[in-house]
Structures are given as C-alpha cells and as structure tokens.
Amino acid sequence: MVKHIVFAISGFLIVLQLGIFVYREETAEWKGYQATYYKKLAEVVGDPKLANSPIKVTQIWDKKLNRADRCTTCHAGIANPAFENEPQPYTTHPNFKDGGYISKHAFEKFGCTICHEGNGQAVTVAATHGVVKHLDRQPLSGAYVQTACTKCHYELYSRDVYWPEADILMKGRDLAYELGCGACHAIRQFGTNAALAPDISNMGSKTELAFTLVHDFSRIESDDHITRVWEFEHFLDPEKIVPGKPDAPDPKDRTSPTIMPNWGLTEDEATALTVFTLSLRDPDVEDIPAKYFPKIASHEGFLQYR
Ligand code: HEC
Ligand code: HEC
Ligand code: HEC
Ligand code: HEC
C-alpha cells in the first residue's frame, strides 16, 4: 500500500516538473524575443530607458471579429517602419511602409490571423508557423496568404480585375478559367453549377479534420498530410492520387480512376491552382463582420451574395 502511495506521489512530481519545465521553456521563448525588440528599439530611438520596458504578452482583440491574436508578442516591430532591415521576428511587415497596401488593413483592427490563419493565441514559434499537427486552420505564409484576400475582396474573381498584390491568386484564377474547371465543378464564384464533380465553392473554408476524414493521403509524397499538400499533388497528377479501384476482386467494389484531367502542370501552376481553390470561401463559415468590407462600388455584388 505504502509502496503504491510513494509511487503515485513520485509519478505526480515527475509530471509536475515536466509541466513546469515546458511552461518555462515556452515563456522564455517569447520573452527573449520581446526583450531583444526593446533593446533594438532603445537603440533606434536613442532612449536607453526603453530597453527596460516591461515584458508582457501583447494581443490584438476586436469584439466584432472575436479573435485574439498574440503574434505581436514576438513580431513587435511589425508596424514600425524603422525596423525594415531587422531580421524576423522584428521586421516591419512587407508592403506596410509609406502607405503600402497592407497598411490599409490596420493591424489594431484586423489582427493577423484574418489573413494568416493559424492559432492566434499561441505564443511559441512551433505552434504558430509551418505545419501544426491537429490544427484546423493551418498557418499561411508566402503565396498561401493570398487565399485569404477573397474573404473580403470578392471582385478578385472577375477576369477584368488584376491586382499585382495577389499575383499568384490571379494566375490561379486565370488558369481555372482557361482550363475549364467550371465544366465539371460547381464554382459559385464563377457562376457555374456543373455536377460532374464535387462542388468546390467552399473548399477554402473546410477544416483540416473535415478534409482528412474524406481524402486518401496514402499516395501523397509529402509527409505533411494537410489540405494544401493534397490539392497540390492532386493537381500535378490527379489519377495518381485518385486511381479508383478498377481491379477490385468483387465487381461491386470496382470504381474508375478520376476523370479530372492531367494537364502536365508545372509546380508553379499547381501552386497557383491550389491558392485559387483554397481562396473559394464559404461566407457563412468565415463570418466576416460587415465593417471589415471595403467600401467600394465593385463590392456590391459580394454584399448581395452574402
Ligand atoms: C514566439 C515568438 C513568435 C510568435 C508568437 C509568432 N512568431 Fe512569427 N516568427 C517568429 C520567428 C522567430 C520567425 C523567424 C524564424 C522562423 O521562420 O521560424 C517568424 C517568422 C514568421 C513568418 C515568416 C516565416 C514563415 O513562417 O513563413 C510569418 C509569416 C510569421 N512569423 C507570422 C506569424 C503569425 C501570423 C503569428 C501569430 C499567429 C506569429 N508569427 C507568431 C516568432 C514568432
Ligand atoms: C491583409 C492581410 C494581412 C494581414 C492583416 C497581416 N498580414 Fe502578414 N502577410 C500578408 C501577406 C500577403 C504576406 C506575404 C508577403 C510576401 O511574401 O510578399 C505576409 C507576410 C508576413 C510575414 C513574412 C514577412 C517576410 O518577410 O517573409 C510576417 C512575419 C507577417 N506577415 C506577420 C504578420 C503579423 C504579425 C500580422 C499581424 C500584426 C500580419 N502579418 C497581418 C498579409 C497580411
Ligand atoms: C477582412 C477583410 C479583408 C481581407 C481578408 C483583406 N482585405 Fe484588403 N482591404 C480591406 C479593406 C476594408 C480595405 C480598405 C478599402 C477602402 O479603403 O475602402 C482594403 C484595401 C486593400 C487594398 C487597397 C486598394 C483599395 O481599394 O483601396 C489592397 C490592394 C488590398 N486591400 C489587398 C488585399 C490583399 C492582397 C489581401 C490578401 C492578402 C487582402 N487585401 C485581404 C479588407 C480586407
Ligand atoms: C473532366 C472533369 C473535371 C475537370 C475539367 C476538373 N475536375 Fe476537378 N475533379 C473532378 C472529379 C471527378 C473529382 C473527384 C475525384 C478526384 O478527387 O479526383 C475532382 C476533384 C477535384 C478537387 C478535390 C475536391 C474534393 O472535395 O475532393 C479539386 C479541388 C478540384 N477537382 C479542382 C479542380 C480545378 C481547380 C479544376 C480546373 C483546373 C478542375 N478540378 C477540373 C473532375 C474534374
């Protein structure tokens, strides 16, 4: 009996110690970045006192949007034009300085995850970047951030519009028109309702869990089993990823390979089509408050569509 109690207590202590260790490591990470930021700020401004600014988790929260983004805890120089030549995570946001287009999306109102997705409340590098296991909205960076623009800029689906700020999305959109995806797939954003293939109008608003439950990753080369990777490899070779079961022993189990064509796309083209596909959003799921929509005439169609 005594042995059991000693065993239980020591087990508990080990778990507790481990917990404290993990907690310390994680807090140390963001504290280190923030302390360095203040040191740099003190130098830039020429005020040594700033180097001792209190260290704390910072958060952007907007009641209407209902997101709490803590990215600025480490990315503390994100809206400071003087930090343009500093390394990450201190750098000024690209296209922010001198009234660049990103500055039209005031961080104190928009936060970060409205464009970057991911877990806004986490404060470690591992939980906010790259591929994060079991996270329903994977962090977006590089070209993939462009999948978020159409949450608000609906006119980007019009072929008369070209925005260089969303160049990869524009390339994907044009390819999708040229290759005739709308002949098989319903794509509400293009006004097509074909039924030869799944409706892809809400593809970008699906959670990772919903996607992985109904997609076979066994032929995916990458170890990252997430939606954008499946889409990308599927565009490069649809039949490899969805070969069907033409040779199943029981005729009842036989299914044909996918009819989606293999266009021999380049990797850049497959990326552009993946960005396009994941830009197709369900407005009910995204639930962007009206005050976040640009007030321009070309958005009337979108507001109507909502
Ligand atoms: C613990 C500190 C920390 C937090 C919190 C943090 N970042 Fe970072 N971030 C970094 C560091 C360090 C780098 C550069 C090194 C790297 O890429 O890992 C970076 C790089 C980046 C990059 C460019 C590299 C890449 O992954 O593509 C993006 C984009 C980014 N962060 C976005 C975010 C967003 C959005 C959030 C909030 C959801 C966030 N970060 C939260 C520390 C942080
Ligand atoms: C309006 C959409 C939008 C918002 C809001 C936004 N970003 Fe970005 N961010 C982008 C885009 C687009 C890129 C990719 C730019 C590129 O690669 O040229 C990017 C790139 C970055 C990078 C990588 C920079 C580099 O040099 O590679 C970091 C870090 C970053 N964002 C952090 C943040 C943080 C932190 C916030 C919140 C304070 C934020 N972003 C809010 C759209 C946004
Ligand atoms: C949550 C909604 C939202 C998202 C997401 C968003 N924007 Fe915006 N964007 C706005 C609003 C609001 C304005 C301000 C427009 C105005 O002043 O009428 C704006 C302005 C702009 C402008 C300036 C052009 C103009 O008409 O004034 C550009 C360019 C732009 N956004 C590009 C992007 C890109 C590229 C992305 C994706 C990386 C993006 N936006 C994501 C809401 C959004
Ligand atoms: C000849 C008909 C056809 C054309 C044209 C076509 N597809 Fe498909 N597509 C399919 C079929 C059938 C499936 C379901 C089987 C599979 O996953 O391959 C599919 C699957 C998909 C999926 C996965 C959907 C899901 O929920 O699993 C995406 C995304 C997709 N197609 C995008 C596109 C895009 C973008 C284009 C244009 C570049 C396109 N397709 C052109 C027939 C087509």
Radius of gyration: 24 Å
The kinds of small molecule bound in this structure are: heme C
CATH class of the domain at 156-306: Mainly Alpha
Order of helices and strands: HEEHHHHEEHHHHHH
**What does the overall shape look like?**
flat
For the terminal residues, how far apart are their CA atoms? 66 Å
Mean pLDDT: 92
Helix percent band:
25-40%
Give the percentage of residues in beta strands: under 5%
Examine the coordinates and then state which fold CATH places here, giving the name of the CATH topology of the domain at 156-306: Cytochrome Bc1 Complex, Chain D, domain 2
- Low-confidence sequence ranges: none
Query: Which structural class is indicated by helix and strand composition?
Result: mainly alpha
- Helical segment count: 11
Major beta sheet, strand line-up:
1-2
Largest sheet: 2 strands, antiparallel
The total strand number stands at 4
What is the CATH architecture assignment of the domain at 156-306?
A: Orthogonal Bundle
Keywords: Heme, Iron, Membrane, Metal-binding, Transmembrane, Transmembrane helix
Biased composition (Basic and acidic residues): 241-255
Domain Cytochrome c: 167-296
InterPro entries: Cyt_c-like_dom, Cyt_c-like_dom_sf, Multihaem_cyt_sf
